[in-house]
Design goal:
By secondary structure, the protein is an all-alpha fold. It has one domain: ABC transporter involved in vitamin B12 uptake, BtuC. About 70% of the residues lie in helices and about 0% in strands. It has 14 helices and no strands. α2 packs parallel to α4 and α6 crosses α7. The protein is globular. The mean pLDDT is about 90. GO terms for molecular function: transmembrane transporter activity.
């Protein structure tokens, strides 16, 4: 049972990367903004977090730096699309390309750097339980934070007035504006929070999940996180479950290789991306289902004078 416990533990860790980014993108999209720049934000945050971890030896500061880098890029994106009215899709793609190039340039000197010994975490009493201990209770605190964030976000969206306002902005910004709601400020705040969570995900990759810096190390996880929001029909609990599903698919390749399964490594590597394509195709085949669950004003610009 030990290999299965290790697979579950690895799945939770891999899923956490996707969960933070996808929850951040979910907040954006609930406010009506599509940000295709998740990959770039995560890459810049990854090098920012790794550099701070190398220089200070503090993982906490590294996570703060990663979240700050993600929020800073998201702020630039927000100014462009919310106040200057640029196309959300084109601006997001530009942000992703910028993040990939900037992180590669900034990370040149850190390619050979190594972090110190990584701390080990466990929940006293529970970590020693057979099977469930190593599977569930020896995780990094951010793994549990992702679960808590999912619960908190679900409550926020469906049980709080602020969450109702956020969803109203994503459904009908014109009606929200007519009621005196500051639509653009709320959208900008949502973009900042979403960018910070994408940044936290990027820092988690380079400081905990890997931990090292390699150019392009996010390897498409930002795009998978973007697809997860559609797969989850913009609901936090489904985002978390989907993140663990894709995390499990990612880790399955290593489990199969460790078990001696004779499958080409290239095929195993492409499994997460193949799963993403299959899920999107299946979801897209039911356009009515997507339309009913999708925020009505997703991707549509808003200006008070319109």
């Amino acid at each position: 049972m030990e290999p299965l416990a290790l697979l579950i533990a690895a799945t939770l860790s891999a899923g956490t990367v996707l969960a933070f980014a996808a929850l951040g993108l979910l907040i954006n999209e609930r406010a009506g903004v599509v940000n295709l720049g998740a990959e770039g934000m995560m890459l810049v945050a990854a090098i920012a977090g790794f550099a701070i971890a190398v220089q200070t030896g503090s993982d906490v500061l590294a996570f703060v730096a990663g979240a700050g880098a993600g929020a800073l890029l998201a702020a630039a994106f927000g100014v462009l699309v919310i106040w200057l009215g640029t196309n959300q899709y084109a601006t997001g793609l530009a942000l992703s390309l910028f993040g990939a190039g900037f992180s590669a340039f900034a990370g040149i000197r850190y390619t050979q750097e190594k972090l110190g010994e990584r701390p080990r975490f466990s929940i006293p009493g529970l970590a020693d339980l057979p099977f469930v201990g190593p599977a569930l209770f020896r995780q990094h605190p951010l793994v549990y934070l992702a679960i808590a964030l999912t619960i908190g976000l679900a409550w926020f969206l469906y049980r709080s007035r602020a969450g109702l306002v956020l969803r109203a902005v994503g459904e009908s910004p014109e009606s929200a504006h007519a009621l005196g709601i500051p639509v653009r400020r709320i959208r900008f705040a949502a973009v900042l929070v979403g960018g910070a969570l994408c940044g936290l995900s990027g820092a988690y990759i380079s400081v905990v999940y890997t931990p090292l810096w390699v150019e392009g190390m996010v390897a498409g996880k930002g795009w998978i996180a973007l697809a997860l929001t559609t797969f989850a029909t913009w609901r936090p609990a489904r985002v978390l479950l989907g993140a663990y599903l894709f995390g499990g698919v990612t880790m399955l390749q290593f489990a199969l290789q460790g078990a001696g399964v004779q499958v080409p490594s290239q095929f195993l590597t492409m499994l997460p991306y193949l799963a993403t394509i299959v899920v999107l195709v299946l979801m897209s085949s039911n356009a009515t289902f997507i339309r009913v669950n999708m925020p009505a004003s997703l991707g549509k610009p808003f200006a008070p004078g319109d």
